[in-house]
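note to self: dont lose this again. the chain is below, predicted strucutre after it. 201 aa total, dont forget to put it in the shared folder this time
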Amino acid sequence: MSMLCRFLFFYALLVTSHAYSQQPVRDSLYNELNVADDNNSKVLLLLEISKTYRSTFPDSAFLFSDSALSLANKTANQNLQHLALLSKGVACLRQKKYADAEKQITDAKNYFIKTADRFNEAECYKFLSNLCNEQGRYDEGEKYFGIALPLYEQLLQQAAPSSAMKLIKQLKELFISGIWQYLCKAITQERLLFKNYGKIF
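---
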């Protein structure tokens, strides 16, 4: 199946889902955090809380990710440390702190490649694609998109029903990013064409 066909198929499938309020989820996570009695659980809960703030309150997302990373660094769990690093990088991305975001997400990506954690590797490529697109680096964004997509597809084919919805959510985010990338690149190319056309005449 061509890249375009795959893009259109998954986009048609994924746009049917709807956004929902994060507040009930956030309240539940706060309650769990208050009773958690080990650092590993606290880190995971802080990361989940951070995710609920990403779209609307990136500064809050950063604070929770930073707290998670500080706590994770007190453990011997490198996987948790790099999950927190990725989360902090994504929060920096939402804050438009692109240099910090790129370094943190890339460091996390290299770790997940080394440990063969394909899901979080795909997540890193997805966010790197977003980062490049926001900076107008559309060719790089397209390259990262092209790496993330087959990773997600492979994971979806192998996934149990209980984890399939999580993968579908990530695919939706990836394809929304891909559409935005395509539109921005097309607009940029059109502007360049008209600019050069004006020079000729």
